From TrEMBL:
Domain spans labelled HD: 25-126
SMART domains attached to this UniProt entry: HDc (SM00471)
Gene Ontology molecular function, alphabetical: hydrolase activity
Matching Pfam families: HD
Keyword entries, A-Z: Hydrolase
InterPro entries cross-referenced by the UniProt entry: HD/PDEase_dom, HD_domain
Keyword Hydrolase attributed: yes
Annotated organism of origin: Fictibacillus phosphorivorans
Official protein name in the record: Phosphohydrolase
Length: 214
């Protein structure tokens, strides 16, 4: 029964995201789901809730749904339409709304399942995949990969994020390098440490090559 709901939800999400180019493409969801499953096993979190929340976590993003409210309503209607039990709906909705509200990625998760899915989403923003996503996103927004004249701001408001010039490499300092400190679960912390080292190694090589020294 639960497997059927997962399969149906997978198709629903795949269909909605098939033409997304804002960094929320289907394969981001696919990776977050796989990570969430692996972390859930290690942390003893509920499998069904983690997978469903991972699959649906970006549907309510304003970049996709137009507004968070509209997106959340759509997710709720979907869960009702496939007859997910009420207590599961409440739990899944609470995870997704915490993740999708503005700056929500910084919000505290109260349940272990929420912590797992939030960790999985943050992990997909670092490591080799995180680097790839950052350059892809920057390219799509017309940013340079690096410009020594654009200062790095370690603290940015949402407003600055949206309106001011940045670069792919600046984004490492503005966000990626901070993510490992935000991990909730101990298994995700372990994965984040490796991915973080990979970011540092990448930057070291990048600047070496930039100066023609490597
Ligand atoms: P999510 O909600 O899945 O964490 P975001 O919408 O914050 O994703 O970003 C999607 C991807 O694009 C992430 O990998 C993120 O690091 C990257 N990204 C977001 N903002 C920027 C930016 N200003 N410059 C470069 N990459 C960015
Ligand atoms: Ni995401």
């Amino acid at each position: 029964m639960e497997q059927m709901m997962i399969d149906q939800t997978e198709n629903f999400v795949k269909n909605k995201l098939k033409d997304e180019s804002s960094g929320h493409d289907w394969y981001h969801i696919h990776r977050v789901r796989n990570l969430a499953e692996n972390i859930a096993v290690k942390e003893g979190a509920d499998h069904f809730v983690c997978v469903m929340a991972a699959l649906l976590h970006d549907i309510a993003d304003e970049k996709i749904a137009g507004s968070e409210e509209k997106g959340l309503e759509e997710v709720k209607l979907w869960l009702e339409s496939i007859s997910v039990e009420d207590h599961y709906i409440t739990h899944i909705m609470s995870i997704i709304s915490t993740m999708s509200f503005k700056g929500g990625n910084q919000s505290e998760m109260t349940s272990i399942e929420g912590k797992v899915v939030q960790d999985a989403d943050r992990l997909d923003a670092i490591g080799a995949i995180g680097i790839g996503r950052t350059f892809a996103y920057s390219g799509a927004k017309g940013q340079l990969m690096y410009d020594p004249e654009i200062p790095v701001r370690e603290k940015m408001t949402q407003e600055q994020y949206r309106n001011e010039k940045s670069t792919a490499v600046n984004h490492f300092y503005e966000k990626l390098l901070k993510l490992k400190h935000g991990m909730n679960t101990s298994y995700a912390k372990k994965l984040a440490d490796d991915r973080h080292l990979f970011l540092e190694r990448f930057l070291d090589q990048f600047f070496g090559e930039w100066e023609g020294e490597k």
